Amino acid sequence: MIVCGLRVPSTLDQRERTAIQQAGVPFSTLTRERIELGLTDLDDERTAPLAALRRAIAHAS
């Protein structure tokens, strides 16, 4: 893996950090999964990380 810097508005950062606290996972894990899910819309395979799907199902319940 590589390290990359990302500039985001402070409001978006706060929303992400709130989601991270609720999910109970590391910042990089949830942020990486969100990027993967966003890119999934561009793929023909339509795959998503299992952990992200589980969190989405738990959140919907």
SSE string, helices as H and strands as E: HHH
Q: In percent terms, what proportion of residues is strand?
A: under 5%
Radius of gyration: 12 Å
Which spans of ≥5 residues are poorly predicted at pLDDT below 50?
none
What structural class do the secondary elements suggest? mainly alpha
Write down how many β-strands occur, each being a DSSP E stretch of 2 or more residues.
0
Whole-number mean pLDDT: 82
Distance between the termini: 33 Å
Instruction: Give the helix tally.
Output: 3
Shape verdict: globular
Assign a percent range to the helix content: 55-70%
Strand count, sense and closure of the main sheet? none
In terms of quaternary structure, what is this?
A: single chain
